[in-house]
Design brief:
Helices cover 51% and strands 9% of the residues. It is α+β, with helices and mostly antiparallel strands. The termini are far apart.
Amino acid sequence: MEVEFEPLAPHWREDPHPIHRQLRDRDPVHWAPESGMYCISRHEDVSRALKDPEAFSSAAMNSVLTDLGPIGPRLALALVGFLLRTRVDPFEMQRRGSLISMDAPRHDALRAIVSRGFSPRRIAAWEGRARRIVTEALADLRPGIPFDLIERVAVPLPVTIIAEMLGVEPERQRDFKRWSDAIVAVASGPARGNPAASGLLREFSALYVYLRDCARERRSAPADDLVSLLVDPSQEDALDELDVIQFVVLLLVAGNETTTNLIGNMVQLLIEREDVLRRVVDDPCVAPAVVEETLRYESPIQLVFRQATREVELRGTRIPKDAVLALLLGSANRDERVFPEPDRFDLDRDTKGHLAFGFGPHFCMGASLARLEARVALECLAPELLHCKRVGGASPWVDSFLVRGPARLELERQG
């Protein structure tokens, strides 16, 4: 029987794993007619596409995630308003794309520039700050008072770190989370294809104006932050304003939403597995293993997109030139051909080779920061979670085909 699956549809978001297994077993190169994509579900095939940018271009990340839908009068008017407020041409912005949608040589050159802000030394220096953020948040975890783990820990930890990396004022950090939510909603959630109706283009305008002004200010008066590093006029390869804006927008989603959902998924899994939680409390050295198994078991980024640069063949299926492929990271990370008993959360599993951060030239630049933040959060949270129970019923999932994590996770301390 034919497998029915559409990668952008909301039907699978509650629990995508059963349909992913069907795809891997019966239709590993699945044609989804509604979205017009080939869905690739096995680990071997996803890895092949990720590591071969000459055959599988990243340009599809731009064409899929920035698809505004039909340009009717309402959207046209909203785009004109965006242009007038920001002095940024939205079509030039779409044409240029961001780091995740570029191929060599431009990708390699830009990545070399922005990676300066993600050196091992710079990332390690954030551990103390991350620990203080979580510790301060947990001061409000009191008996009998509901505590939303997402709102109080999983959101503010990465948002604060990213904002401080960029040199953003503390009072603007709530704005950054709101802007991040708007990006996810337009690119992969309920506002996809209709950003004008939701008013989210106004949020984008505010974000772009803020980042444009920030880049100009740092160029004339550098500070000790990432934006200053990227626009430093003494560097021959300093970024222009639009590239800085596009990179920060990417950082908001890749560095904020990914880590928020990683922490939310991790805590949700541990609350249901007291034996694993006790192991972490008894031996904090296992925390990195918990982070890696969470990344594999409940991948915070569920899929990425690629475009065939020539006709290719996968598992007997001919994929024509220019076809779009949806690479199902969440499925690949539960491929029983690589990870035995993949639907079991196993702290002792060898997770080497999971694709939660991608693979190849587009491997997530912020992976080490996400791992640090998740580990620190777990080390601080684990002793408290032993005394907490979940309240408020089942947690709703974030409404997005791109990211996966609980939108809310209410806990209550006992005694």
